[in-house]
Structures are given as structure tokens and as C-alpha cells.
Amino acid sequence: MSGTSSEISPFRIDVPQADLDDLNDRLARTRWPDALPGVGWSYGVDRDYLLDLAEYWRTGYDWRAHEARLNEIPQFTTAVDGQNVHFLHMRSPEPDATPLVLTHGWPSTPADFLDILGPLTDPRAHGGDPADAFHVVAPSLPGFGFSGPTRESGWDVPRIARAWAELMARLGYERYVAQGGDYGSLVSCALGRVAPEAVIGVHVNALADAATASGSGQELSDLSEADRQKAVANQMWWFGHNGYATQMALRPQTIAYSLNDSPAGQLAWNLEWFVDWDPTATDHAPIDRDAVLTNVATYWLTGTAGSAARLYRESGTSWGSKPEPSGVPTAVANFLGDRAVRGLAERANKVVRWREYPVGGHFASLQAPAELVGDVREFVRTLRNAD
């Protein structure tokens, strides 16, 4: 498929059984490192926790069941700017539904959205108002999962946003809402900047570029006292948790060899975020282990863990820089553990709605799906009422 073709092809997941057999064999032959007694998660992923989860992956997790569930959702591929793009496309039964493009982050896939697709596309069937219906497009980021690896450098956030604008236009959606979390929040905000005539609103959670100041003393001094204290605390927290991001932003190819050769190693690498750093904590909703393994297995079976890591390298030069101001109405939902600071978010976004939720976690669609759907619905109602 050429980069200039606008062809959209149906896609169905069908992993060869030999690949699943090889995965199980590799898990069974994992060469486990030692671990210090009593350190828990303070040195990294807890060994006992990982041993248990890896054994469940090998003997209890059923890829075929999750593959079948994913295949219940219409899926397609198309080439945009020379890159294969895989996406879910679930149209609402409501003819006047609002188009919505959902973007996942790292280390996720569109599988994160399975539990919210029904309420978003068919609220009537889920006890909601049919006026709140959406036609949903949920692409796999370039280099992630079934989009396959990137084939050239340069796939940073603005380029992904331009690809999404082309994808939505190709699907016939002239006006739409963008939603995303983690890296998806950056892509969604960037989409509002590259296609302001098409994006009627941006909704984000886990807003990744509004937690810490870029280093400018003036930037901190411009914040309210409460926001300044939060930004400083976030910076200290990030110093203790950014090792994975630094590695991928500087040397993604180095870690790719390990990720592509050891499923247990890839599981450990992706796991820290999926457990919100400590699965024993009681202040955030745990993520179902099948959801974790579906994402990890997708990376493994497509060989894209290293390619996904390249997104950090591609975007690394712009970390901490202030994006171009956006005039698109933007809503921010801060779930438990999200660290966005409103004063920082407002540097480059037209924030018209800000909500703090005492539930959930970094992966709202998996940890607080009802609250996320409700917040998106409420925000888009305000956009409709403003028209």
C-alpha cells in the first residue's frame, strides 16, 4: 500500500498459532534475575508480582478470547504519509452522532477503549441520552501494535496529529472531537492546532505536558501559589520515575533488543505504568490483568515494543517547550494520580472545563470508564449548546 493511496482496507486480527506457541515457550524458559529481599517495588518491578503475572500469561491468559473480542469491532488499515495506520471504527446507530477520535498513549493500544465504545456509540442502549452518541475512530499510534513499526524517523506528535486529520477527512468526518490520555493527550491537543477548522473540541486526561515547568523561573512565578507547589512536587516525583522515558528518548534501539527477545522483559518494562507504580496501593483502581496482558501481548505479537519506544525519541526534542497556542475549547479531566497543573495547561490550551476526580488512575478508560464517558458527554454537550 503506497503512502499516496487513500484506500481503506478491512482488517482482522489472526495471530498464527506458531507465534503463540513460541511466546509460551519463551515464557517457560525465562531466565529470572535475583532480587533483594524485602525491597518490594522500590528497586523496580517486584519480582514475585512479575513471576505470578508471567505464569498467568503462560497458563491462564487466553489470547484467542481477547482476539475474538477485538474482532467484534470493525477494524481497518490505511496508509497515511507513507505509514500504515490501523484503526477501530465503530459508528453509532444514531445518525446525528458526533464524530470522536480516541488516541491511546504508551504502553497502550486501542484495546484500552473496549469498555467505553458501547456507551460512547450507543448511549440509548446503555441507559443514556441518544443525543450524546458518538461515531468513534480509535487508531493505533504509528509504530504501535497493528499499525506496525514505523519505517522512517520523524513520527513525532505533530506529524501524528496531521495523519489523524487526514484519516478523519478520508473517513468523511468534517467536524469532530478529539480525546486522548497520556501521549494521546498530546496528539489530541496537537490535532486541535493542526486542524482547528475541523476540531470542535479537545478532551484530555493524563495531560502529559502540563505537570512540570520547562525550567523557566518566570514560568513558575507566573503560576498561583498552589499550582507552583504542585508543579515543584511533580518535578521531584518525575526525577524518581523518569528512567524508562529517558532511556526511550535517548536510546530506544538499545532497549528494543531486550524487549523484542524476552516477553517477560517486555512485560516488566510496560508494567510499571500499568500498576501506577505500586499494585499494593489502595488509592487507585487496579487494572484488570487481562487488559494489561492484551496490550503487552499485542506489542509482543506484532514485534513493535521497540518501534513504540521510538515515539519518545522522536518527541524528545520538544519536551518542555511551549506548543503553539490553541483556540480550540479544551476540557481536562484529572483522575486520581494525574498530575496536570491548570496554570501550565493554560499556557497553550484554551481550557474551558477542568474536573478533578478522586477515583481512577492514569488509564481512565480502564480504571474509571463511567466517569470518563460522563465527562466527555458533559463537555460535548456544552459545545453543542454553544453552536
Concise overview:
This protein is an alpha/beta fold. It is 44% helix and 15% strand.
Cα gyration radius (Å) = 20 Å
Shape, please? Answer: globular
Largest sheet: 9 strands, mixed
Reading the helices and strands in chain order gives EHHHEEEHEHEHEHHHHHHHEHEHH
The rounded distance between the terminal residues' Cα atoms is 40 Å
| Number of helical segments with 4 or more residues | 16
- Give, in spatial order, the strands making up the sheet with the most strands: 1-2-3-5-4-6-7-8-9
Features:
387 residues, 9 strands, globular, alpha/beta, nine-stranded mixed sheet
How does this model look, in words?
The protein starts with 7 loop residues before the first strand and ends with a helix. Helix 6 (183-194) links the parallel strand 6 and strand 7. It has a nine-stranded mixed β-sheet with strand order 1-2-3-5-4-6-7-8-9, sandwiched between helices. The protein is 44% helix and 15% strand. The mean pLDDT is 94. With 387 residues, it is α/β, with parallel strands linked by helices. The longest helix is centred in the last third of the chain and has 18 residues, at 369-386. The chain has helices at 17-28, 47-59, 63-71, 114-121, 157-170, 183-194, 217-221, 225-239, 243-250, 252-261, 263-274, 289-302, 305-315, 342-345, 364-367, 369-386, and strands at residues 8-11, 75-80, 83-90, 98-103, 134-139, 176-182, 199-207, 329-334, 350-356. Helix 5 packs across helix 6 and helix 11 packs across helix 12 (289-302). It contains 16 helices and nine strands. It is globular and about 60 Å long.
